[in-house]
TrEMBL record:
InterPro entries: Rab-GAP_TBC_sf. It comes from Plakobranchus ocellatus. It comes from the Eukaryota. This is TBC1 domain family member 5.
Amino acid sequence: TGSFRNLELLHATPFARSQDLNPSNAIVTKLTRIQDYVLKKFDPELHQHLERLEIAPQIYG
């Protein structure tokens, strides 16, 4: 698994969050969209706080 992890790092998108790279299902995609668009628009302070703490939307959604 070590070489597989190294391969993943080689093909990783710079500055991308892990939940954005490979959403596991529709609910993760929807929660991420809510965080990135709805929350950012209506409560930018909370959005920034969650981003700074790197709290994934699946945790609170």
